[in-house]
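fold description:
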Amino acid sequence: MLSHPAATIRADLLRWTPADPAQAALRTEYVAFVDAGGDAALDRSGGPEHLTASCFVLTPDLSSVLLCFHRKGQFWVQLGGHIEPGDPDVASAAFREALEESGIADLTPLGRTPLDVDRHALPGAFGSCAVHWDLGFVALAPADAVPVTSHESEDVAWWPVDALPPSVPPGFGRRLAGILTALAALPPTPAVGNSGSL
């Protein structure tokens, strides 16, 4: 891990300008949380509340999202998890988790700045973790990519962004809609190709 990971995360958060006022307000709380906790804010053993990294994996035309059925949570959710000591930054943690949980080797990250923040309480099945301060990143997968279920989930599958399964966490639809809105505001990139969606 970087010698001062909290400072790196703080800079990443401040580099991001959310269009949604609620996300902007929550980002301010994230910065305060990192300032108060320092590097311990990344460490799951540092306390019941800590940062996590997740990745919204989408098809190039942004019509489908890859979700895993979380073994502990018993819901469909984006890929992600805890930041590990070998991760150089939060974005790397998100993309590592996406690779590990999907088995898709040729993911294309869309930037290294978070496009979503979400703080949520966790049920008792998550053990000592009481609250996750999640940072959401985005990657694209080939349209014909076939995911492989990892040991951390019971299933992994593509879902249309406008027809999500009923068993998603509260607020997940809002998070995904915010991600899609943020992507629509970005200039076209070679990674997206000529889909016309960005």
